[in-house]
């Protein structure tokens, strides 16, 4: 409602395993606006929020001057688009390979960890008053739910079993709950030649321990081959924490973050299992899901490295 202009140049962008993303131009009164359509599956995705829920979170973060695109319209089950929303296009690049290797990002790459720390802290400062409908999860619930999901597939992996037991006795930090993105990593971040411009794809967001976001971006799978740089393949944890503390001056302990990194590695391993069985059993048959399923073994290696070989 309220949109009376014309749509042109509708183009599919790089899609994830379960979502469609389209760019298009919207023209009204001789003014052209660049927009993005995010369309999710019409079949419930289990762990993922609906697109309308994802959009509502972005609206709250945007109102608090957080690093997200402005949401313009939210669809619902009664409309043709169903599980979808429209937002302003943020210019920049989100493909990890390009951000990590293209020459035009050489000058800013060393500052990206600091900027990511700042962005995380801004997200974690968003007031929770209008987000009380979101799931709130502590680490015990996170581990219990993850184990139930893992067990459902009857793929008993010794490394996973050991890690689940090990994590039960670890210190994850005692912080007041905040909004967490829960998938803050390359691929869900938009950069241009000046640095971080936006955080996208909020479908796993919930209320929880803010260290979960910090540990997640340190998972080796999100370094995309640049394994020497702990933060996203481009930066160091020290710089990320400096950026974070410049916005939220709280005491952060590396040991606790490492525990969240190990949890995140295990979590990604289980998500890989989910994706491969979605392919094997349907209804989401795709080469991409099958390829993600093959990465379960990578997370096993990463867990062995972190737990027994002083990996970073």
Would you give an account of this structure?
The protein is α+β, with helices and mostly antiparallel strands. It starts with 5 loop residues before the first strand and ends with a helix. The strands form 3 sheets. The protein has a 5-stranded antiparallel sheet, with helices on one face. Strands 6-9 form a two-stranded antiparallel sheet. 38% of the residues lie in helices and 16% in strands. The model has no long low-confidence stretch (mean pLDDT 90). It contains 10 helices and 9 strands.
Summarize the structure.
By secondary structure, the protein is of the alpha+beta class. The chain has helices spanning 51-63, 96-101, 112-124, 139-152, 158-167, 211-217, 237-245, 254-281, 287-293, 296-308; strands spanning 6-12, 19-28, 31-40, 71-74, 84-88, 178-180, 189-192, 195-199, 206-208.
- Mean pLDDT equals 90
Count helical runs. Answer: 10
Q: What is the chain-wise order of helices and strands?
A: EEEHEEHHHHEEEEHHHHH
The spatial strand order of the largest sheet comes to 1-2-3-5-4
Number-wise, the strands total 9
- Fraction of residues in helices? 25-40%
Strand content: 15-25%
Task: Catalogue the unreliable spans.
Answer: none
- Intertermini distance: 50 Å
Largest sheet: number of strands, sense, barrel closure: 5 strands, antiparallel
Given helix and strand content, the structural type is alpha+beta
Report the radius of gyration as a whole number of Å: 19 Å
Estimate the global geometry from the Cα principal axes.
globular
């Amino acid at each position: 409602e309220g949109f009376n202009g014309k749509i042109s140049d509708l183009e599919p962008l790089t899609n994830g395993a379960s979502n469609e993303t389209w760019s298009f131009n919207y023209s009204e009164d001789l003014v052209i606006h660049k927009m993005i359509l995010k369309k999710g599956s019409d079949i419930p995705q289990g762990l993922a929020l609906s697109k309308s829920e994802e959009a509502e979170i972005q609206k709250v973060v945007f109102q608090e001057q957080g690093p997200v695109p402005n949401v313009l319209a939210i669809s619902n089950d009664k409309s043709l688009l169903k599980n979808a929303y429209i937002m302003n296009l943020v210019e920049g690049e989100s493909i990890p390979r390009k951000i990590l290797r293209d020459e035009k990002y050489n000058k800013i790459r060393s500052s990206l960890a600091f900027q990511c720390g700042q962005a995380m802290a801004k997200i974690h400062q968003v007031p929770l008053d209008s987000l009380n409908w979101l799931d709130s999860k502590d680490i015990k619930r996170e581990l219990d739910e993850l184990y139930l999901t893992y067990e459902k597939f009857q793929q008993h992996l010794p490394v996973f079993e050991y890690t689940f037991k090990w994590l039960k006795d670890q210190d994850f930090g005692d912080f007041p709950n905040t909004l967490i993105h829960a998938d803050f990593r390359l691929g869900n971040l938009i950069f241009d030649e000046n640095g971080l411009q936006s955080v996208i794809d909020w479908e796993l967001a919930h209320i929880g321990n803010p260290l979960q976001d910090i540990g997640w971006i340190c998972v080796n799978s999100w370094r995309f081959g640049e394994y020497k740089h702990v933060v996203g393949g481009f930066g160091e944890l020290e710089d990320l924490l400096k950026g974070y503390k410049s916005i939220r001056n709280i005491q952060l302990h590396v040991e606790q973050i490492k525990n969240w990194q190990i949890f995140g590695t295990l979590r990604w391993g289980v998500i890989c299992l989910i994706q491969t069985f979605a392919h094997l059993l349907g209804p989401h048959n795709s080469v991409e899901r099958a390829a993600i399923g093959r990465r379960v073994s990578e997370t096993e290696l990463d867990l062995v490295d972190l737990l027994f070989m002083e990996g970073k």
